[in-house]
Amino acid sequence: MLARKSIIPEEFGLPGLVSRMPRKPVFRDRVNKARFIAKNGSCNLAHKNIREQGRFLQDVFTTLVDLKWRFTLVIFTTTFVSSWLLFAMSWWLVAFAHGDLDPTRKNETDCVKNLKSFTSAFLFSIEVQVTIGFGERVITEQCPTAITVLILQNIVGLIINAVMLGCIFMKTAQSNRRAETLIFSRHAVIAVRNNRLCFMIRIGDLRKSMIIGATVRLQVVRKTTTPEGEVIPIHQIDVQTESAVGSNSLFLLAPLIICHIIDKNSPLYDLSAMELQCSDLEVIVILEGVVETTGITTQARTSYVSEEIQWGHRFVPIVTEEEGVYSVDYSKFGNTVKVATPCCSARELDEKPSILIQTLQKSELSHQNSLRKRNSMRRNNSMRKGAGSSGSLRRNNSGLAVPKVQFFTPTDGGQNLNAVT
Which GO biological process entries does UniProt record here (predicted)? Predict the structure, then answer.
């Protein structure tokens, strides 16, 4: 049996209509990618399957400095106690070889006076290495071996003290401690500056001691694929900043705004506002300089992912002049304000400069309309206040109205009375 043909033509059916409907562009959702650099500057990188662990022992000093404090203190304590026990055994052997531990021995000079057991040898080892010298146990000139052990223990003790004190000093004076007072804005912004689309961040130093020769480097990290099909999971692209073009270093006396002009050499050149939110790029900011007080090179790092880049915003001013002194309000350090910015990419702006002009004109018109609305609201409020005050005056005046008084005067004709008010 043949299927009955529909009365409605196929082109006007539901499938045909749906196929001809215009579709909105669909952007892929951004995949949650792990950050390469955390907001506090730590590297989100784990080293696995390192087979040549002996390389760390070839640089013992750096290994000790990089360890956590609890492991460092355990190593320090173990090293000192082990050296005391080792030389305590040496002193006990010297006394045993000389016969000082024999209780039947009389009228002979000992190598070390009052050293009669291992406990006394351990106490004497501590006194020698830390130069306490209580005076009860004293070495004599009868044993050249004891003199040799004394010299060796003093040399070993000085080496251990020098290494341990150096490690403690380097751990307390590490450059990352100074980086705690170098701050970055929570968000980065993209806005028009000098008729160019720019990527901007704000940096600052909370201390009065300056960072000498401060430099700022920007890098874009993202996953890329070469034309040959090679996948590069961490592709680092250097980004030129406006400060690096003008000079080699920054004068970081007050908070500064670091600006990157998005031109044809920028990795952000082809990204629009919508495409930026869907991208998986990460912008790394590295601030380096020499600490003025210690002369140690320090480095502060942070990063911005696409969710932390605000399109069409700009930083509010925080430096003001008060009574002849420049004042910085750090409570507004990361505050931004919306500004008129085209949502297209920098490439489209270069190809069609009229987009920027139209955006600025629309912003100016909206600003003028908002000013008119504010002025009209102020006039209406003032007129309402004036009307309310005049009405109250009328009510007050009506309450104070003079009442009518009638005066009656007799007429010549007799009894008629005229009322005069």
Answer: nervous system development; potassium ion import across plasma membrane; regulation of monoatomic ion transmembrane transport
pTM score, two decimals? 0.66
CB neighbour burial string for 376-404, b if at least 16 within 10 angstroms, e if fewer = eeeeeeeeeeeeeeeeeeeeeeeeeeeee
Q: Please, which pLDDT band fits residue 301 given cuts at 50, 70 and 90?
A: very high
Structure tokens at 256: 């500064």
Q: In this structure, how many other beta carbons lie within 10 angstroms of the beta carbon of residue 362?
A: 11
Domain 178-357: CATH superfamily, name plus number: G protein-activated inward rectifier potassium channel 1 (2.60.40.1400)
Q: How far is CA 109 from CA 105, 133, 417, in A?
A: 10, 20, 157
Q: What pLDDT score does 417 carry?
A: 39
Nearest 5°: the CA angle 247, 250, 252 is 160
Q: Which CATH class is domain 54-172?
A: mainly alpha
Where are the domains positioned within the chain?
Answer: 54-172, 178-357
Instruction: Tell me the DSSP string of 39-89.
Output: TTS-B---------THHHHTTHHHHHHHS-HHHHHHHHHHHHHHHHHHHHH
- pLDDT for the residue 199: 94
